[in-house]
User: Which sequence fits this backbone?
DNA sequence: ACGTTTTTCTAGAACGATTTAGAAGAACGA
DNA sequence: TCGTTCTTCTAAATCGTTCTAGAAAAACGT
């Protein structure tokens, strides 16, 4: 039941002041090499594992980690290769700066109290991945004075972001479909409230996420004559796309094209077609968004965005003092594959 | 340039003691509802965002986050759906306990100094994902007195782990191959030193990770008459499997079966076969390990392990005080698909 | 009305480090 | 030899909380 070994204990044992022990760890040039050696070895003997992280964080004001905030549940984030790719890019830069990544779950409950992870987290900055503009967690972070970089363009001019031009990107998709003669379109959107229930048809105002909304607007822009319906099967996941597409395909009112607002959802739609003996690109067109690796295998027409680069760029804005650009637009590209074809007449 | 708003500022403004403000946030039953209300609203007015995370962590000794340590570079972790699945399971439980996940990069350099992320990190516990037993980072964590749960069975009886019986699992694979008549086998292993260079052939002692070693032993057990060679193309990734398999296939000495010690590597090997016009299961057998989602699509024979459950179980051991079992063995299962077939004679 | 319990609040000491300002001694130049 | 500049080390304050022990006030039972 011995009391914990602290910097003080080590100092006493080595016959020096606590400051010197601290310097031995943090500022080696502030003391003679010999003494440093001696301190380090007595520390070792005492089983001292180096300065306590929390204490250091408190005193120096640096936590050595950046937070990452995801839409929805944390577990869902890992089901989308797009999110995973982003994380990989971010992790690359984090690694470079010897910084940890703190994945914060945003509990819907307990926003007021203090037991929220977003409140608790000791972070220097935060990456906001596809979280809707008005989310309370963002307010919390802003209040805490934590610098943020979002993957969506914000409305505030002083907000940092690394994003694509959602409208323009979706417009490319819309133009592609319009060119192929599609006029009956169903868009598969992410919607938390639809989770676990029947798929639901939504109006544009009910679409929560700003980026989803923008993509829909982009589509509309290039498809002014088309009837565009919005359907959600739940969270952004393969299964949601599957369920929603099944519902659409089994209805009386089939579209000629299905647009997944993410590739995972579009792939779910392709699966729904497959089980019904329908061929994507011939019987019905399916297009996606993101260009995840699986999209290529599946022959899915989609919008490519450099997701890993996006992660890296966010990391740079967050961590690299040399990075001055705080609002970065990444390029997108229409990738035409076999899943889209002329509308049957 | 006003000084920061702290609990003290709020206390002064509300005309109460700092302790009371603290209680307003943490122990609502310790003060009257009216006063709590008043304190919270003055806090709001002053722009106080709640107790500082670092200070709280220091004083209360709880950081509210668990660390996750991965093999190799953090970015590589995201390239393996197996690791991602684990993370998803772990995240599920973390979410339940309002705990954040801290992904720590383990920089190979700077193990001694204090700027290491593993040293810096403010965490209550740590999940060790496929990190070799003797890794210095583990020593660091042990010294810091941080409880750990590993995904590999450790040698120490007091170590916590959630793992599979690697030997037994690999033995199933070996038995399967032996039954099919294979006697010339190449095993694709993960090896950091082989990264970026030519694929290398290794001896069993050179295989770093304990679990890899165990799997090889399991194979050997059921294939006593076979010649088993170990080849690495680098880190555990699709590209490494691809490169290594290409090297093997283009050599004079082709095996009849290739064993990927992970599915991603096995899938890389299948790709290498494809580009050479070889059909898996006919010309050469390929088997993997893990049963990631893509394995099904590709028709890869593999060992299934319930990875998401594994993540969840680790989470429980880490966070749930009710979880008493500290050494858990998960089940595995041989899944036979089209990539394995009888050895050509 | 009076001791006892309960509720509500506070003072002051930790928590374990870093930082600032400066002391003591060594080295230096003239 | 003497002031000056380095180098090496230290004392004490501070970071923003939470916790322990206890005071003051209110409520209670008889």
Assistant:
């Amino acid at each position: 039941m011995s009391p914990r070994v602290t910097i003080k204990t080590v100092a006493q044992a080595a016959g020096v002041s606590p400051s010197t022990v601290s310097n031995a760890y943090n500022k080696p040039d502030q003391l003679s090499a010999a003494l440093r050696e001696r301190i380090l070895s007595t520390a070792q003997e005492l089983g001292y594992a180096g300065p306590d992280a929390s204490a250091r964080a408190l005193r120096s004001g640096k936590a050595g980690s950046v937070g990452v905030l995801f839409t929805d549940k944390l577990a869902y984030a890992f089901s989308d290769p797009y999110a995973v790719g982003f994380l990989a890019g971010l992790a690359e830069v984090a690694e470079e700066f010897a910084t940890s990544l703190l994945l914060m779950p945003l509990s819907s409950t307990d926003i007021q109290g203090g037991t929220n992870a977003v409140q608790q987290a000791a972070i220097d900055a935060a990456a906001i991945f596809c979280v809707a503009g008005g989310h309370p967690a963002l307010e919390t972070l802003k209040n805490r004075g934590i610098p943020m970089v979002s993957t969506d363009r914000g409305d505030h001019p002083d907000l940092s972001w690394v994003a694509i031009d959602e409208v323009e990107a979706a417009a490319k998709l819309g133009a592609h479909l319009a060119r192929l003669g599609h006029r009956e379109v169903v868009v598969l959107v992410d919607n938390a409230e639809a989770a676990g229930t029947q798929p639901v048809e939504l109006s544009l105002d009910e679409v929560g996420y700003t980026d989803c909304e923008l993509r829909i607007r982009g589509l509309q822009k290039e498809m002014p004559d088309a009837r565009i319906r919005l359907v959600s099967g739940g969270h952004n996941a393969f299964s949601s796309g599957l369920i929603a597409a099944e519902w659409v395909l089994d209805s009386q009112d089939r579209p000629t094209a299905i647009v997944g607002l993410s590739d995972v959802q579009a792939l779910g739609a392709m699966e729904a077609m497959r089980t019904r003996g329908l061929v994507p690109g011939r019987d019905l067109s399916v297009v996606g968004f993101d260009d995840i690796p699986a999209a290529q295998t599946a022959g899915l027409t989609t919008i490519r965005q450099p997701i890993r680069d996006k992660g890296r760029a966010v990391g740079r804005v967050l961590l690299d003092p040399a990075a001055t650009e705080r609002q970065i637009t990444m390029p997108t590209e229409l990738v035409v594959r076999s899943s889209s074809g002329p509308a049957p007449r």
Residues 4, 6-8, 18-19, 22-23, 26, 51-52, 54-60 of chain B lie near DNA strand D (CB under 10 Å from a C1'). Residues 72 and 106 of chain B are 7 Å apart (CA to CA). Chain B touches chain A through 58 residues (CB under 8 Å).
